Amino acid sequence: MARILYGIAGEGLGHCTRADLIGQRLLEAGNEVIFVGFGKAVPYLEERFGSRTRPIQGLGFCYKDDRIDHWRTFWAGLRRFPSIAKHNKQVLDLIAGQWTPDLVLSDFEPFSAWWARFKGLPVVSIDNEHVLTHCRVPMPPAGLLDRVIAKAIVRVYAFKADVYLILSFFDAAVTHPSAILAPPVVRPWLRNIEPKDGGYILLYISTGQHKEGCLEVLKRFERQRFVIYGFDEDATYGHCTLKRRSVEGFMADLASCSGVISSAGFSLITECLALGKPMLVLPVSGQYEQLLNAVQVQRLGIGIWSRQLSATAVERFLSYMAQPRHISRQVRLPDNEAFFVLLHQAASQVGVQIRC
After folding, report:
1. Which end of the chain has the lower number of beta carbons within 10 A, N or C?
2. Which of 3, 1, 2, 5 is nearest to 19 (CA)?
3. CA dihedral angle for residue 287, residue 289, residue 293, residue 299, rounded to 10 degrees
4. Which structural domain, as residue segments, surrounds residue 37?
5. Is residue 356 in some structural domain?
6. Can you give the CATH number for the domain in which 317 is found?
7. Distances in Å between the alpha carbon of 355 and those of 67, 107, 340?
8. Tens digits of per-residue pLDDT, 4-60?
9. How far apart are CA 159 and CA 154, in angstroms?
10. Following CA atoms 298, 302, 307, 310 in sequence, which dihedral angle do they give, to the nearest 10 degrees?
11. Is residue 37 within 8 Å of residue 46, measured between CB atoms?
C-alpha cells in the first residue's frame, strides 16, 4: 500500500475523467490517495471522491474571439503566479504535515509536481501533452507559433518528473530516457455497455463556442437530432436538446449517439474510439496539442476535423458518417490493464510499491 498525492489539471474535464478511473482503481487496490486540483476539476473530483479532494489554485487560458490569447494568458499567469504558488504551497504543506505521500502523480497539474521536486518526493507524470516534447511525431505545419508556445509550456509542467507515462492513441517514437508510451485508458463503464445508434448526434461544447452561434449552424439540419452539452442549460430548441452537466447522463448519451462533435480533447477522442463513434473534432484555436489530435483523428480514419463549427463542416460530417469507415492499424486502442502494468512499473522505478 502506498500514499499517493494526485494532482489534476482543471482546464476541461478530460484530466478529471482520467483521474476518476485511475484514482478509483488505486483506492480499490488499497492505496491511500488524496486529490488536489483547480477549476473544473474541483466539483468533479468532490462529486467522485468527497473529502479526499483538496482544492488548490491554478493557471488557466484567456480567450479572445474563440481563440486562446497567449499574451493575455502569459501576463495574467505572471501576475497571479506568486500568490497562487504561495497559497498552493500552504495547502500542500498542510497535507504533508498530516499525511506524508510516498509518491506524487501529476496529470498536467504543475504545482503538485513542482512542490514534490522541492520536497524530494518522487514524481510520475501521467498525461498526453508530453507527446509534444518527449516523442517524435509528424507535427502539423500550421500554427508554428502555437507549437513553440505549447512545447515551452509543456516543458515546465511536471518539472523534472522521474517518469513520464505518455498516453497516446497514435504511434510515436519516444525520445526521452524517462518517458514511456502508454495506451489510452477509458472508464470501466465503456467495457460494460453495448453501444447503439440512437439516431442523434452528440455535441460536447467545452469552450470557445456560443450557444446562439451553435444553434444558428444546426438549425439548417432540421432532419437531424442533436443533443448538446456544455451550455449548462436544460432546454429544447426544435431538433436540438440542451442538457446540463451530468456525468451519468453524458455517458448514456455518448453510448447511444450516432456520432460526436466536440473539441479535439484527448479523453473524449479515446472514449469515442472505444465505442466506435465517428467524430467531427474542432480543435480549440491556439491550442496546438488539440490541432495535433485533430490531424491524427483524420489521418487514422477515426473521424474528420474542421477549424470551426460551420454548416459546411456538419454537412461533411453527415456525409462521412454515411460512408464505410476504414480505421488505420496504427491506432493505439485503449487498454486499461496494460496501462496499470506500466504505472506499477513506473512507481517501482522510483522505489515505490503501489497496488493497482
Report:
1. N
2. 5
3. 100
4. 3-185+335-349
5. no
6. 3.40.50.2000
7. 42, 19, 9
8. 999 999 777 789 889 999 999 999 999 999 999 998 889 999 999 999 999 998 776
9. 9
10. 130
11. no
